[in-house]
Amino acid sequence: MIDAILASALTLSVPLVFAALGGAIHRQAGVVNIGLEAHMITGAFIGALLSGWTGSWIVGTIAGVVAGAITGGIMSLLITRLHGNEIIVGLGFNIVTFGVIGYLLRSVFGVSGTLQPEGLERLPSLVIPGVADVPVLGAIVSGKDPLFWLAILAVPVLVWLFAHTRWGLRLRATGASEPASASLGLRTAGIRDGAGIIAGALAALGGVALSLGTVGLFNENMTAGRGYVALAAFYFGRSRPLPTALACLLFGFFDALQIRIQTSGGFSADIVSTLPYVAVVVVLAITGIRQYARSSRKIA
Amino acid sequence: MSVTATHTAPVEPEPTDPGAGRMTRLLEAVRNVAVHAGVPVLLALVIGGIVLAATGANPFAVYGRLATEAFGSPSRINATLAATTPILFTGIAAAFAYRAGAFTVGVEGSFVLGGLTASVIGSQMGGVPGPIAIVVTLAAAVLAGGLVALVPALLRSLWNVDEVVTTLMFNFIVAGLAGWLVQSFFLAPGQANSSTEYVAESAELPPLAPPGQTNVGLIVALLVLVGYFLWMRYTTIGYEFRAVGSAPRFSTAQGLRVRTVIATGLIGAGLIGGLGGGAHALGVVHRYSEGFSASFGFTGIAIALLARFNPIGILVGAILFGALNAAGATVQLFINLPVQLIDILEGTVMIFAVATFVLPRFLTRRRRLQRGGAA
């Protein structure tokens, strides 16, 4: 029982981790990315499509990531160059992307909502001999797909990138104060575009993890608000990689628990689904009140 | 990292020249709105046209068909006005908050909870005389809508907590809450999908031109629109709304009631959104079921931005989107056109409504030189 819940919590967290880390990067650069949902569904769609055409999960994954980078770049240009409000552009971008994919599914592929490309190759699951039979540990580390391990790897890499590279410093400087960074000669719009492209690519990788990892087909509702949960996660983790990933794990655990409880009956999945969002409001409230208290002390 | 608060409206309100006469001022406002709204709408049509052409459809034929389906006959106009009603409410709600510089995306949540409340209370109104049933039910819906906005409003006005994210989160919280409430308490017996019982006949809003769906809700929405206009133009707090919305720091320095204004803006948007949900429940669908709101709250955002908070602009924008929704629903029956085209158009309008189109630098410089030479 606990094995199964842990294993499925980890699996369910992978798409969230990618999307949330992407959002965290973008947030560090000073942009709240509401379009994660759009980039995820793009990655899931293109990934499934290309994996189906070529019969290779590697090609599918790469194509999905590239598509996400493109949508992330377009969305970022609308924000940085045309000065569109990031929230409205993000919401609008989600609506347009889901519209385009839904439209294509019906007019080109002739299906209503679900696409099962023939010859689609799913992500391989890596069974680790020896560990696979160990209780709990086996369920946690064995039989996972490559993206699971990539998600784990991404956290320390991102911590290092933020702290020790020129890119990380410039990114954070842009987010902390755009005018100050610009006065130092940083091309802040360009830095933000870069962050937007990475955010799109990472979120799309999360989408690939859904379509090629978990289920092996594409459904137009398969992201099911995960982009917004990812948003909740990086707010919860205050855009730092490790806390953000841990928040994803927590939300993934809720999700797994809710699926488990739902099948055995009794508890409401609807209420559990609101927990990430309630958590964000609470976190925002606490940080906001703290900050307010601090700044009013300073004035006094 | 700090939590940032959005202090200014997402777009500049349409400027009005105080020195001009009333008639020229009105014309000026209409011209401004037309310019601001024309570009996004045109771009949306172009992008939609590209998608259409890429999939082998003739954009002009499709747009022509959409126009006929929206306005081609009295019954189609009726359908368009019915589709206009809910988004007229959400558009006014969004504009109300934005004018005060409070940037809510939570009207969707208010609309949903207002609709659920109206459905539940309306279903208990059997035997109560019509006007009383309707007023009581709508009042409850209004309160429910305001309740959704209460926490973000308090957080924002008391401690400066960013209202954009909290209101967005409350949409999801309300969606989950509504699903749970319906599933565990208000499920109509014998229903496969989760929906409440139908409201009592006495609580239904009467249709204006039966058998069409346009109902008294449209009149209520128009009254709210007039109220919005009067509030902004002739009341003291309305004046403060405009001041705080365009210059929050200056307003603080001037001793305007910035906190009150922002809380009023957010809660007011919730109240209006709740009324919209209630009117939609009583007038059109007569019960709450999953998918009650077809993203009406988000369409309202697009309308408010397109109109730059101008009342006439809001009405025109609501009719435009209402026409799209009504026509989109029937057009797919006649020509094999996925209804998602409407989402593409709507989302594009939303994006470009907040984009600023700057003339290339050499053009602006030349224009400045010309102007300088003439003076």
Automatic annotation (TrEMBL), chain A:
Record's subcellular location: Cell membrane
GO cellular component: plasma membrane
GO molecular function terms noted in the UniProt entry: transmembrane transporter activity
Keyword Repressor: no
Annotated membrane topology: Multi-pass membrane protein
Main location: membrane
Highest taxon in the source lineage: Bacteria
Entry annotated with the keyword tRNA processing: no
A UniProt-annotated Pfam family: BPD_transp_2
Annotated keywords: Cell membrane, Membrane, Transmembrane, Transmembrane helix
Cited CDD domains: TM_PBP1_transp_TpRbsC_like (cd06580)
The protein, known as: ABC transporter permease
Source species: Cnuibacter physcomitrellae
